[in-house]
Design brief:
2 copies of one chain form a homodimer.
Chain A: H1 2-11, E1 24-25, E2 37-38, E3 44-49, E4 56-60, E5 62-65, E6 67-68, E7 73-77, E8 84-92, E9 95-97, E10 104-107, E11 110-117, E12 135-143, E13 148-156, E14 170-174, H2 183-186, H3 190-199, E15 207-210, H4 255-272, E16 282-287, H5 289-299, E17 307-311, H6 335-341, E18 344-350, H7 356-366, E19 372-376, H8 383-393, H9 403-415
């Protein structure tokens, strides 16, 4: 095929409209788009039409300079990319834009392009023909706390429609910095992961509520979502000078999210959906900043949550010294009490994200706090890490009843 | 505020990060983005960061050249824009891209930017605090006809979850050329329109299924979706040289959509949702190419559909001579039989789209075919036309029972 392509190139420009047959279009391309495409060794070729531009680059983690062809299209083939989902952008003469050849995904506060490099374990987040599928529904609701309309997405398991009296436990699942309520269902493939887990019996049927981490009261700053072209970057070292150029982790408090969640979101969900009540049927998890938010919300409300998951984000920092009396505001000071309340404390991370989370997990273990440590091999601070975290976390949920149910089960077991 | 802004401009570049207070950010901007913004007279100001570009334009119907400021940002204020939703793009040194300051919307085969110019009748497609809201759910299903996974979105009315035994009639609703199954729920605001109609008692509660018009069997061409940067444009006058540069209406057959809809989609919907059976509880409508598809599907399957809507699209063409024996393959040749079967035949159009649809409606009326003509004032071939069409069409649906029910009602009425 390559030789044919070279001949075609000598004779016409048709070749540029066709990909090398070894290079498969990314699953996230718009219909018919041959580029970007991915080679078996995970290199990717990008193509951008910008006939009058002086300089065009692809930014996917690092930058790749593109070369202009005779037809005005710029192309580049990268070095091998890490497996999984990546945001990327195109820089055209200094302007940061999305590649018009792909669907776009909300991250870093704007609609990025996306590319999917198939992973060896792609099966767990793929659609399968022969099993039932749940729904992801858009749910609008008005928040009394923020005084605004909000939107979340709600996954209901495959039997939700047909089992019209069954009630289900609920996992509240948060995105990361600069993302929104669409993240888990679009980048995260939450419904396919759960459909597969439920069909194989690995996870219990559950409802998953995916809300927007951004919840500010009137007058509070929403600066955490600022994308970098919205305003000049603040001076280095000041609040908001980190990721995104404006706003950033420094500007994040989370205070109003917890308030909004407890006042507006949970009551709306429990009124609207067939939900099992109580802390033993309520889990919360999130990725990155959403993991930080999860720990803030749950650790100060252990009467309301029995399952906690941090995917590349928690209260523990990534290298901070652990002190049971002060770390996470002393939430781990009484290990016995904590272990009695929290059925699963889950800490997930990509292997390329550094040792902080593993260290935190080990420190917790040494302090007597039961916890699960999960590491995604070969991935960094990206969505394949979090898909794998969910795939490991969800089967652990809602397996245990309350303490009294446990006692009853133990009694039954010994009496039989 | 303007004078303050001028002073700030003389002293610093801060002013460029703030909009004139008369210019309100478009409702479709990413969080925090002040631009594009809309003035009370419907002019809009756009701002794009492209520090090294030689030429930047906004394309919103026509082109507006932007001017570069001292901070590297290009700006332009347009002439007054038509009310409603508009796709738009940014041209940076010859490259067509989305504006990174807005959410993106799938149209013309790619993820365009969008801007919303508030209409005088904005109320009918706005969220309201004090009424119940339905859901829009993502539904995956496998098509035996196309041999691929497909996705549709399904609107269920507010009482669907709580009235667990009620069954509902169904409207199948299609997008237009280059759009997809997200069009009606994102650009069209279908859920808000229906929530408002149902709450006010104007429309009956119904399920609305929004699928993707693109349905090809293995080996068939999917060229209708090609965006213009995917390949060099074909020579003028050849098939596919129209809108989009590649593919286009000329390449559209629709044959496999009808097959797929009858074989896969309708059975899946009737198995998955609580649906009232039969043609009297089944409507189909679509916009533009989706209207053409609607007429193709329904007119050849009148045993399955009793309500038909074409929003800026039908089988009638826009200026073609009407002949009851041949127009639309002779579907209107027997007016009495047609009127008995079809409860509502709806033809909607924007007032700026030319007289073709009105002429078609009048020709139908002269041929004895009952039909409803609706005209959206001041709008062209865009989404506000179609939001208004739905708002007028939906209240007309499922009001009439079957002929025998009619006869029974007439008897009852005369007997009392």
């Amino acid at each position: 095929m390559r030789s044919i392509c070279v001949l075609a190139f000598l004779g016409s420009s048709l070749c540029w409209g066709q990909a090398d047959t070894d290079c498969k279009p990314s699953a996230l391309n718009i219909p018919e788009a041959k580029y970007p495409c991915v080679y078996p060794d995970n290199r990717a070729t990008f193509r951008v039409l910008a006939p009058e531009a002086q300089s065009v680059k692809i930014r996917i983690g690092k930058g790749f300079d593109m070369t202009k062809g005779a037809d005005g299209a710029w192309t580049v083939t990268t070095t091998p990319l890490v497996v999984g989902f990546h945001y990327y952008s195109v820089q055209i003469d200094g302007a940061t834009t999305a590649d018009p050849s792909t669907m776009t995904f909300f991250g870093s506060g704007w609609q990025n392009s996306g590319i999917e490099i198939p992973a060896p374990d792609v099966d767990f987040y793929s659609a399968k023909t022969d099993l039932p599928h749940g729904h992801v529904s858009q749910q609008r609701y008005f928040s009394k706390v923020t005084e605004k309309w909000r939107r979340c997405f709600v996954y209901t398991p495959p039997d939700y429609e047909t089992s019209s009296k069954t009630r289900y436990p609920v996992l509240y699942l948060l995105h990361g910095w600069g993302e929104d309520e669409t993240g888990w269902y679009r980048q995260g493939r939450v419904d396919l992961i759960m459909d597969n887990l439920i069909a194989s019996g690995k996870a219990k049927p559950m409802i998953i509520v995916m809300d927007n981490l951004n919840a500010v009261k009137p007058g509070e700053s929403a600066a955490i979502f600022g994308a970098r072209w919205l305003a000049p970057a603040p001076p280095p070292g000041t609040a908001g000078s980190g990721r995104g150029g404006r706003g950033g982790l420094a500007g994040f408090t989370g205070a109003s999210f917890t308030d909004m969640m407890l006042t507006d979101l949970i009551p709306m969900v429990e009124k609207t959906y067939r939900v099992l009540p109580g802390r033993d049927n309520r889990a919360m998890a999130g990725l990155s900043m959403g993991g930080m938010q999860t720990f803030r919300t749950t650790l100060s409300n252990l009467d309301k949550f029995a399952y906690i998951g941090g995917f590349s984000g928690s209260c523990g920092g990534r290298g901070a010294t652990f002190d049971a009396k002060t770390t996470c505001d002393g939430a781990f000071a009484d290990a016995a009490a904590f272990n009695k309340k929290v059925k699963v404390l889950f800490l997930g991370i990509g292997s390329e994200e550094g040792p902080g989370t593993k260290n935190f997990s080990e420190a917790l273990t040494q302090a007597g706090i039961h916890n699960v440590y999960f590491e995604s091999p070969g991935t960094a601070h990206e969505w394949l890490t979090w898909r794998r975290c969910l795939n490991d976390f969800a089967p652990r949920l809602f397996r245990q009843g309350s303490e009294s149910q446990h006692a009853a089960r133990r009694q039954n077991a010994s009496g039989e």
